[in-house]
Amino acid sequence: VMGELVWKKDEQGYVLSAFFWGYICSQIIGGYLAGRYGGRLVIGITVLGSAILTLIGPLAATTSGAIFPAFHTMWSVWAPPLERSLLTGLTYAGAQIGNTAVMPLSGLLCKYGFAGGWPSIFYVIGAVAVLWCLLWFFFVSDRPSQSKRISKKELNYIENSLADILASDSKKAVPWLAIFKSVPVWALFCGHFAGDWGAYIMATSLPLFMNDVLGLDFASLGFLTAIPYIAYFVFINLGGFVADKLQNANILSTIATRRLAMIVALGSQAIFLIASGHCGCGQETLVIIFLTLGIGLSGVQYAGFVVNYLDIAPTFAGPLLGIGNTITCIAGIIGPLMVGKLTPT
């Protein structure tokens, strides 16, 4: 990418993988702390810490890793079993709204922003995150019984559907040894790694591909890079909705639903990404369509491995996801490095 900072391809790979060196640090501890002190507090402090570090330096990733394990801890006491796919998917789909907004905004700020252009990206995003924290602490509660905005009918429905989980001791020790000896858990980790491998490479390398291969300028680059993530947002929600419907109608069992979601997501991603690589010069529109379908349909995986953490161990979903995310950060670290080595020119 040509600009104020001119780096070789392998150097770009190191920079793009740098986020995951920090992101890996707080995954397991984030899930553990959410179980001990509540997801509301952990997520709020995490985002606030990330906001402050975004404003002053490059260390934001060291705190942001706690967010999704803490979300899983919260959903374990908020999401009824037959609504888990949709509700959990909504959380992750919300992150795609951020991607969709930040990518074009970053392109514009890089070209027209204050403080020399690209530094303004960090200042604007950091300031927005601070405002988000204020809303989070004002509106969100750790448990349904602590919420001042939930109706009595909804509270009874949630508590009845999650009676066993709510009755268990959320502060009891995490069975670390049993987790690492469990074959289903390791199968889940494998699915998680496969899903995040493609997602992380696309997130870090898609702008480079569109700039270097398709020849797009920075202003249009941000908007076109956002298109696949709009599709991603749609398919995360659609996949969760369909998965819950299949289970509620007794068409598929829980395990069959999760497997189908992973087959659709990873199979579609592989097919369309391979197809993108076989497009010729002058077929930029077709490439963008293939990338949009590949990335978009991969969002169905959130009705697969993501919610499966809540299926197999709802009481320890936060720490379990923290372990899974820690392992898959390896994909985020080596993916950009691999791209840099394979595309030196």
TrEMBL record:
Residues spanning the membrane: 12-34, 41-70, 121-139, 185-209, 221-243, 255-274, 286-310, 316-339
Pfam families in UniProt: MFS_1 (PF07690)
InterPro entries: MFS, MFS_dom, MFS_Na/Anion_cotransporter, MFS_trans_sf
All residue ranges annotated as the Major facilitator superfamily (MFS) profile domain in the record: 1-345
Keywords: Membrane, Transmembrane, Transmembrane helix
Keyword Membrane appears in the UniProt entry: yes
Membrane association type: Multi-pass membrane protein
Organism (species): Wuchereria bancrofti
Protein name: Major facilitator superfamily transporter
Location(s) in or outside the cell: Membrane
